[in-house]
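Hey, resending since the last one bounced:
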Amino acid sequence: MGTVESGRLPADGVRRMFDRIAPVYDAMNRVMTAGLDRRWRRITLDETVRADDRVLDVCCGTGDLAIGARRRGAHATGLDFSEQMLVRARRKDPHVAWVQGDALALPFDDDGFDAATVGFGIRNVADLEAGLRELRRVLRPGGRLGILEITTPRGPLAPFYRLWFDRVVPLLGKALPGGDAYTYLPASVRRFPEPDALARLLEQSGFTAVRYRTFAGGIVALHTGLAAAPGEASA
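The structure tokens again:
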């Protein structure tokens, strides 16, 4: 049985946890990132979304990436398994197609999207490789992928990172509904692949031209890639 402290929970446990924190999710994102998450999302959209694209935002939470894609002229769909997150997303923008569903069994046809994004959610997928393969399945060949995720820095910011995510964030969470999520957060990041390893997994899952860049001294990474055509080698 998974635990919050280990960063591993069964799927129903993760869903309930995010349902509980939905009312404070946006505010905590701003606090934890000093508001920089908005800039990182804009860069993610710059890298992946074009006007008139069919765009899927997986693990969409309260919908910021999907809403940003729609405002750029894309036809946006946001998917999350937390209904309470989607309640807030719908309030923000009723014109996005909001879908409750599982990232491991996306309820969409093969090759149905021109671009896909995941913002701070891929580490919560129970089977990362299966989740990446699903993203590849629903993207057309040449479709663009952007994954924005917290990672573990190895440079001079590492001590600050450990203090902030391992100590301060869980303390802030204790004062909030569903605060155990903010104990889960640092544990889930520790078990998540480092950027080089995630890049390799993307290549093994059917993506080519895989690249990544880091922000905030290596605390956050943005991976991008293209859905490979059948038989196309990763590069």
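The longest strand covers residues 139-150.

Sorry for the duplicate.
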